[in-house]
């Protein structure tokens, strides 16, 4: 097992990169949608993004995965990217940021 690297500056850069990954169907980035559950980076520069999707069987899963990998690879110090899609805890609109809720007209 690789040792997890604790570097807040790199994680901040990764989050910023993920804010540039916009769901093409909703027009909101993955961070504000609340789809990103975790980011881990090992000493060797492997980043694992744990995320979910708004629905199972999402037709753009592979597109989002590629967009995430492309965005994160631009961060200095990142050598490899893994995207783990999980279904627990289930995503709900409550995970969205205020900005995403306003943009999407969600009033729940």
TrEMBL record:
User: Which SUPFAM superfamilies does the annotation name?
Assistant: Fe-S cluster assembly (FSCA) domain-like (SSF117916)
Domain called MIP18 family-like: residue spans: 12-83
Coiled coil regions in record: none
Q: What is this protein called?
A: Iron-sulfur cluster assembly protein
